[in-house]
Design goal:
12 strands, alpha+beta, 43% helix, 3-stranded antiparallel beta sheet, 461 residues, flat
Length: 461
């Protein structure tokens, strides 16, 4: 056994995935606006136009638009339909308790910047519901099968806690005064930082505190409670690719070109006086209204930095950089609201087609991750409520990337339902109805009331 393998796992993590973690830090700094390299030169102007953040945030909003999770029975029956409605209500309560709308958006931005993201699904006995969080992938490590990167067999999560936070998170670890536990309770007077490492496999769980094994027991869930997914998948690779590297050089060059153009315009507003054939300047005063007496054959003039169309070349270069930036980011100018033409319908779809394709690629990966996350939540709820929620099928739907004509969509869905091609539920989901079954039930009640000659009851009445 090598010396590295003989070390405790927390010490092994200190030497693992160093290039990946370094790339995370660089991408995160660039997203936050640290986009110039090296120390600034004397009197150098450095403007930062953070288009990296604008593009990432804009794309994340397009990707997460209209996310809906539905539970469908595998075989249609009244009992299965009732079970699906019951499970959807339980799932909705868990989503609201965890604030998943905000977590999903934050996680999408984090995934686009770093290149990877993660969900953690555990049971919270104090709240009596599933707890869904988004751990920082900068502290995440994974081991997978050699022939299949999709089959993860161990996951480790490393993070920092103070002594008070450690006691709050793991109160069962606080030993009695006469205990001989290898891990000692930190002094209340010294809220020092402690490195905590969770190690999960399908069969077991370990908790390390400061390189000491503080707890070890069987996995209470029977599955690894992590869903790790990439921003964009690279072939044969487990970890994903960030949105930042493809646009890094274009953003840096745009910052440099705009800084240079800004300096030229400032100098043109405060022109430079040029003196020719003047060897001494003790009689030349630099002040408003000063009159200079120049020697014979000497002349003075203002340096015009804007002559010859030089600024136009700079502007053309900046526009070219914008084109390169939007091409590499796959986010056309139309996505930022630039309306050079009154585009609609197919013309708008063609204009935004690169963004649509990018969103579709991302949603393929997000759909699998959210489906896996939902299945974990259902398994936890099933264990607590003793209901066969895991027998239901998880369906993930998304809103349209481009603005839709709802009246035209409603007409199309009505024709498909009348022709027997779509069910009412499918049509309702296509229209963005979150509770298709409930809406259909309320419609049936209204029809029965109208057939009996009574007005339908008001909602909530």
């Amino acid at each position: 056994m090598t010396a590295a393998l003989a070390q405790p796992l927390p010490q092994q993590l200190a030497h693992m995935d160093l290039p990946r973690l370094q790339a995370y830090r660089e991408n995160l700094d660039f997203y936050r606006g640290v986009q110039w390299t090296g120390p600034p030169r004397r009197r150098e102007r450095r403007l930062t136009f953070n288009y990296a953040k604008a593009i990432v945030d804009k794309t994340a909003a397009y990707v997460m638009n209209g996310l809906e999770v539905h539970l469908l029975p595998r075989e249609p029956s009244p009992q299965a339909e009732a079970l699906a409605r019951e499970a959807e209500e339980a799932l909705k309560e868990a989503h609201q308790a965890n604030g998943l709308d905000q977590i999903d958006l934050d996680n999408e931005i984090d995934c686009s910047v770093l290149g990877d993201a993660c969900y953690k699904v555990t049971w919270d006995p104090r709240q009596g519901t599933a707890r869904i969080s988004a751990p920082d992938v900068q502290g995440l490590f994974a081991w997978w099968e050699p022939d299949d990167v999709a089959r993860v067999w161990r996951v480790a999560l490393r993070y920092q806690l103070t002594g008070e936070e450690l006691e709050l998170a793991y109160p069962h670890l606080v030993p009695a005064r006469d205990s001989r536990s290898p891990w000692r309770r930190p002094s209340a007077l010294r809220p020092s930082q402690h490195t905590v490492v969770e190690v999960w496999t399908a069969g077991g769980f370990q908790l390390w505190v400061d390189s000491t094994l503080a707890d070890e027991r069987p996995n209470p869930y029977g599955f690894i409670p992590f869903v790790i997914y990439p921003n964009l998948r690279e072939p044969k690779q487990f970890w994903g690719a960030s949105d930042v590297p493809p646009i890094r050089e274009a953003v840096q060059e745009l910052n440099r070109a705009m800084s240079q153009l800004s300096l030229i315009l400032e100098l043109s507003g405060n022109p430079i006086a040029v003196l020719e054939n003047v060897s001494e300047s003790h009689d030349i005063a630099v002040q408003p209204g000063a009159v200079w007496e120049l020697p014979e054959r000497a002349r003075a003039y203002l340096l015009d930095l804007l002559q010859g169309g030089g600024v136009g070349l700079h502007v053309d270069y900046v526009n070219l950089l914008f084109r390169v930036l939007h091409d590499l980011a796959e986010v056309p100018r139309a996505a930022f609201g630039e309306g050079r033409q009154a585009l609609s319908g197919v013309a708008l779809e063609m204009e935004l087609d690169p963004l649509v394709k990018k969103v579709q690629r991302k949603r393929l990966l997000r759909t699998a991750a959210i489906r896996r996350r939902t299945e974990m939540v259902l398994r936890l709820l099933e264990r607590q409520r003793r209901r066969p929620y895991s027998s239901l099928r998880v369906d993930v739907s998304w809103g349209p990337v481009l603005p839709q004509d709802r009246s035209r969509l409603a007409q199309d869905e009505a024709r498909l339902v009348a022709a027997g091609i779509h069910s009412r539920r499918t049509a309702a989901l296509a229209m963005g109805t979150p509770d298709a079954l409930g809406e259909f039930g309320r419609w049936l009640e209204e029809e029965r009331a109208l057939s009996r000659g009574r007005a339908p009851a008001a909602e909530g009445g």
